[in-house]
Design brief:
The protein is an alpha/beta fold. The protein has one domain: Response regulator (Rossmann fold), CATH 3.40.50.2300. The protein is built from five helices and five strands, in the order βαβαβαβαβα. The protein has helices at about 5-20, 30-40, 60-65, 85-90, 105-115, and strands at about 1-5, 30, 45-50, 75-80, 95-100. A five-stranded parallel sheet has the order 2-1-3-4-5, with helices on both faces. β4, α4 (about 85-90) and β5 (about 95-100) form a beta-alpha-beta unit. The protein is globular. It starts with a strand and ends with a helix.
């Protein structure tokens, strides 16, 4: 599942995901309510989650997802690279933190490894 408020970035992430064999996109959301709904209905294995959403924020989504019955792998995908954000997301249960300014090939490789597990 992708949780990202930028439709352009969501579209680019979808293209990237479709390029990875054995990875199925089960949903996409741009806000808190959509993310929680998709998580509860589809029970994704992996969630790409932005911190900064137009309606709600990714930290609230992360807390809700990690307090739910399913425990997907959550990759925080954000512009906030400061260590304070990394610490907060880790405390809330994020599994990985990926800075949007980093080379996207690292994210692709992480998804491939997670799919192989």
């Amino acid at each position: 599942m992708i949780v990202e408020d930028s439709s352009l970035l969501r579209d680019n992430l979808k293209k990237m995901i479709y390029s990875i064999p054995d990875l199925l996109l089960v949903g996409e959301a741009y806000d808190y309510s959509g993310a929680v709904k998709i998580n509860n209905e589809q029970k994704p294995d992996i969630v790409l989650l932005d911190i900064d959403l137009k309606a709600g924020n990714g930290l609230e989504v992360l807390a809700s997802i990690k307090n739910g019955t399913t425990q997907p792998v959550v990759i925080m995908f954000t512009n906030y690279s400061e260590s304070a954000y990394r610490k907060i997301t880790k405390e809330l249960g994020a599994d990985f933190f990926f800075d949007k300014s980093d080379d996207i090939s690292g994210l692709i490789e992480s998804l491939r490894v997670l799919c192989a597990e």
